[in-house]
Design goal:
By secondary structure, this protein is α/β, with parallel strands linked by helices. 34% of the residues lie in helices and 24% in strands. It folds into two domains: 112 residues, no CATH class; 258 residues, Rossmann fold, CATH 3.40.50.
Length: 423
């Protein structure tokens, strides 16, 4: 039962919230110090998002091990805020361009204090500041994923991730611009092993803003597990494949909250996912032979572009028997590991070339930002060159280093290993 001494300050806080929304002075709202019965709930952050149907308030409920995101129209958002305050949150902080309003709720009474605005303006539009990257740091999903603060500043402990996001989008933008996909009105992209979706969201956001509208619209699937969630206005579909269900749920919540109709996330393994037609296949840091599974999926889907950041090169390292000439060099474990990485990715590159792709391997971002920084890029050629010479070279390399099996080689040859497990 909420007493009068508690209810009155809450009512005033709600009135301040309503006033800020009506006057377009609202910036953000945070609710914290939760003492209610909802297990593991810690904090709720509220920020505005602009959707096709108009402006909404996005509520991000932070639990111990997961986040949940929901959108509300203004009236419903006000009711939800009151409900949360009356059911266990002891602290509310409303930020507006006019002032900051702080609500502190005790067991028997509550206190409301008003101060000068700590965030004096809501004008964080990228049109009103110097454009330094392809991605707007004020994008809602960067805030929801913890990359940016509520006022659109990159968090100090996320600067490496921010550099990686921008570099990734820059690379993909260049690849598309110089490929057969440049003028495609419908674009189908799959990110295998999407994780928390930082790069997936950023790529979708960039393409959504930069690509022309298609002349022929494609229907959007109603099935949330469908890998073809075409947008009605841009013919753009991006799907993230991720094994962890909590990350799939979080990313789908954020995509829905932001009105990203053509972006969805599906629970599954790389090896077991059936793709159908794909224009671009992405697999960043898929562990060990999961990278081979992803590359094979891209080849069989006839993807125009395949992008992989290989990780954990264990398969060949366990098999390698250094030739006598290199035995004294490769007796050092660190040298053997580096050589195994080089040979693994070199064979992958040659196998892609044997299937009609032009390949490049280069540094993704500097090593001080991430230790696994090589990017393997394959672009489909119009004409396939003969593969016999490459196959002979691969056989010679395998013989020299005593390599009995390599997963991508086996998959292409139709000799799929039986102990594939979950990837």
């Amino acid at each position: 039962m909420v007493t009068f001494l508690v209810k009155e300050p809450i009512d005033k806080f709600i009135t301040e919230l309503q006033s800020s929304l009506l006057s377009a002075k609202f910036i953000k709202l945070t609710l914290s110090n939760y003492k209610g019965t909802e297990q593991h709930l810690q904090k709720v952050s509220v920020r505005p998002v602009d959707l096709k149907g108009g402006r909404r308030l996005m509520f991000q409920y932070r639990f111990d091990t997961r986040d949940v995101v929901k959108n509300f129209e203004f009236d419903d958002a006000v009711n939800e805020t009151r409900k949360l305050l009356e059911s266990g949150f002891r602290s509310g902080h409303l930020f507006t361009t006019a002032n900051d309003v702080q609500l502190t709720v005790g067991k028997k009474n509550a206190r409301l204090t008003t101060g000068k605005p700590s965030i004096p303006t809501t004008d964080a539009s990228p049109h009103n500041r110097e454009k330094k990257s392809l991605i707007d740091p004020n994008a809602f999903y960067l805030k929801a994923l913890g990359i940016a603060t509520d006022d659109g500043k990159i968090r100090s402990d996320q600067r490496d991730k921010w550099k990686q996001i921008n570099k990734f989008v820059e690379i993909l933008a260049g690849l598309i611009e110089n490929s057969s996909l440049k003028n495609n009105e419908n674009l189908r992209i799959v990110d295998m092993g999407s994780g928390k979706g930082y790069l997936t969201f950023a790529l979708y956001d960039y393409l959504l803003r930069s690509r022309p509208k298609p002349k022929v619209q494609s229907p959007k699937s109603e099935d949330s597990s469908d890998l073809r969630p075409w947008t009605l206005d841009l013919g753009l579909a991006v799907t993230g494949i991720e094994l962890r269900p909590n990350l799939v749920a979080l990313c789908n919540d954020i995509a829905k909250a932001g009105g990203f109709d053509g972006l969805n996330f599906v629970e599954g393994t790389i090896a077991d996912t059936e793709l159908g037609d794909v224009d671009i296949l992405i697999a960043l840091h898929a562990c060990d032979t999961a990278t081979d599974d992803a590359l094979y999926k891209g080849i069989t889907a006839n993807a125009a572009i395949i992008v992989a950041a290989p990780c954990c090169h264990k398969e060949i390292k366990k098999q390698m028997k250094p030739p006598e000439l290199l035995a004294s060099i490769l007796k050092h474990p660190v040298m053997l590991e580096r050589t195994a990485e080089t040979i693994t990715d070199g064979i992958r590159s040659m196998l892609l070339e044997s299937k009609g792709y032009k390949t490049k391997m280069f540094e993704f971002v500097a090593t001080e930002h991430t230790p696994k920084n090589n990017l393997l890029v394959a672009t489909k050629l119009d004409q396939t060159k003969g593969a016999s010479g490459l196959e002979t070279q691969i056989d010679d390399i395998r013989t020299v280093f005593g390599i009995s099996s390599q997963r991508l080689f086996s998959l292409i040859a139709g000799n799929r290993p039986s102990d594939e497990g979950d990837r």
